[in-house]
Specification:
Blueprint: E1 2-7, E2 10-15, H1 22-29, E3 48-51, E4 54-57, E5 70-72, H2 83-92, H3 102-115, H4 121-127, H5 139-155
Parallel strand pairs: 1-5
Antiparallel strand pairs: 1-2, 3-4, 3-5
């Protein structure tokens, strides 16, 4: 089937089987390889994208669901509110080791702070429950998210 949607602000048209996951479509057909595939069942958060303003697991969205929708991936995240500050806060805290989870975590936090720029530590931790990191133990990611929140507050 032919699918038309917006990817990082640009109109795209792609032919795909209706049951192709968005994550695979991004990586294999649209060269948006920043979106990672980990578990492919919606539990790890490596494939997190923003779909029509909502953070979703790209592995759980099928091609037939994309018609006319807007997708933002890590490649286009800087167009979303607070994204540069989220990335800066995470970098200041050396939040990641291997970096495989980083795109999904960034997408989750950008969505969180766009909807709740004053999220407290519990809110941040709750938002990140859908993102698995095997390297850090989450402490550095949480410190980076708190640093991002401070940067966002200072920017207002």
């Amino acid at each position: 089937m032919t699918i038309r949607f917006t990817l990082n602000g640009a109109a795209v048209t792609v032919d795909a089987a209706p049951d192709t996951s968005l994550a695979h479509l991004l990586r294999e057909d649209l060269s948006a390889t920043g979106t990672k595939i980990g578990c492919a069942i919606g539990r790890c958060g490596a494939c997190m994208v923003v779909l029509d303003g909502q953070a979703v697991n790209g592995c759980l969205v099928m091609a037939f669901q994309l018609e006319g929708r807007a997708v933002t991936t890590i490649e286009g995240v800087d167009a979303l509110p607070h994204a540069p500050l989220v990335k800066q806060g995470l970098a200041q805290a050396n939040a990641f080791q291997c970096g495989y989870c980083a795109p999904g975590v960034v997408m989750t936090l950008v969505h969180l702070f766009a909807t709740d720029p004053e999220a407290d530590e519990d809110g941040i931790a709750a938002a990140l429950t859908g993102n698995i990191c095997r390297c850090t133990g989450y402490h550095s990611i949480l410190r980076g998210a708190l640093a991002a929140r401070t940067l966002i507050k200072a920017a207002r």
